[in-house]
Design brief:
The complex is a heterodimer of chains A (198) and B (159). With 198 residues, chain A is an alpha+beta fold. In chain A, 33% of the residues lie in helices and 31% in strands. Chain A is globular. The radius of gyration of chain B is 31 Å and the shape is elongated. Classes of the chains: A alpha+beta (198), B alpha+beta (159).
Chain lengths: 198, 159
């Protein structure tokens, strides 16, 4: 009986030792360090999708209980899955509010201070004018034109044209790679205008 | 009242078994999924990742809040082909793994007695057969006048 007990305690000790050694020696098996994960995201293009922008617009429209948003500046951060936009308040057309959408969470409205020179009729445009549903094709075109190994999309910014001059909004895409940076400019209907290497 | 006592005893026993099972499953998940193999959480991708973000990554963030002290947090992400990602966290995968480990232990707990029972039946049958054969042989030896198994005996059917 004593021998049986001894064997059992010996087996338990062996198992505990194996577990302890495995824990010390091979902790993090199958885990990806944050730096490598960021590299993986960048190697896939940075995370820009049309759904990211379209879902954000839909979320703000739902929060406002309206459709057909008019916006001034829209900024998309693919890595953080964050979309911020300055939205003209449909209930008070003289007001501009900042909205942020990230991971399905909608934050806003936060008041934007306007100067005497700001003209919201001139500076805002219907977000539907921008071909957000073609963002992925735009990113592919921009990265191909950039032609730098390991490049990704860092940020997308949509700015107003001068409505008084008949200019539509424009979209700029900030590109980066381990060796260079560039800015790609698109028309609102997703045509690549130029890529400027910095 | 007397009929309720065995039923109550069985219920308490069942609760005890369930509690032990939950404890074992939780501890196994702590040891395996946190201490040894955090990547095990990525096996739960079919439960938490959409079809457009099918690749699961368990990302580790390591901090050193004080000299000699290291803290590592794990977070699972679902990642799409364009690098788009959704944070899942670690709580939901941990819970799913704990349930999976519990199911595994239950299956093992049911399989071991079944296999053990089959083995006992097999051994019992084999033992009976051996005993019969031995008795038959002893009887034959007595009839043939053999004294030891090494004696040359003309066994029936051997010629």
């Amino acid at each position: 009986m004593a021998r049986v007990r001894s064997r059992r305690s010996g087996s338990a000790a062996t198992v505990m030792a194996i577990v302890a050694l495995a824990g010390v020696g091979s902790a993090c098996v199958g885990a990806t360090p944050r730096e490598e994960f960021v590299e993986e995201i960048r190697s896939r293009g940075g995370g820009l999708t049309a759904a990211l922008a379209l879902d954000a617009v839909a979320a703000v429209e739902e929060a406002l209980g309206t459709t057909g948003l008019r916006v001034r500046v829209v900024s998309i951060d693919p890595a953080g899955a964050l979309v911020t936009m300055e939205v003209r308040d449909p209930a008070r057309l003289g007001n501009l509010d900042l909205w942020a959408v990230s991971g399905g969470d909608v934050r806003g409205p936060q008041a934007v201070r306007l100067s005497a020179q700001d003209d919201l009729d001139r500076d805002t445009y219907a977000i539907a004018l921008v071909a957000l549903d073609r963002l992925e094709a735009m990113a592919d075109a921009a990265l191909a034109a950039f032609d730098s190994d390991g490049a990704w999309v860092e940020r997308v910014t949509i700015i107003p044209g001068d409505a008084g001059q008949g200019q539509p909004p424009a979209l700029t895409m900030s590109l980066a790679s381990p060796r260079a940076r560039a800015t790609a400019m698109f028309s609102a209907d997703a045509e690549l205008v130029e890529v400027v290497r910095q | 009242m007397t009929a309720a006592t065995p039923a109550r005893g069985r219920a308490v026993g069942l609760l005890g078994v369930l509690a032990a099972l939950a404890f074992m499953a939780t501890m196994t998940t702590v040891i395996v999924a946190i201490a040894i193999w955090p990547g095990e959480a990525s096996l739960t991708a079919p439960l938490f990742c959409d079809a457009d973000q099918p690749d699961a990554f368990v990302v580790s963030d390591t901090y050193h809040p004080a000299p000699g002290e290291t803290v590592t947090n794990y977070t699972m992400y679902c990642v799409g082909p364009r690098g788009d990602s959704t944070e899942i966290g670690f709580g939901k995968p941990f819970l799913a793994l704990t349930i999976a480990h519990g199911i595994l232990f239950t299956a093992l707990g049911m399989a071991v007695p079944i296999l053990g029972g089959v083995g006992r039946i097999g051994r019992k049958r084999a033992g009976v057969t051996d005993a019969l054969d031995q008795a038959t042989l002893d009887d034959l030896r007595r009839r043939m006048g053999a004294t030891t198994p090494s004696d040359d005996v003309d066994w029936p059917g051997s010629s």
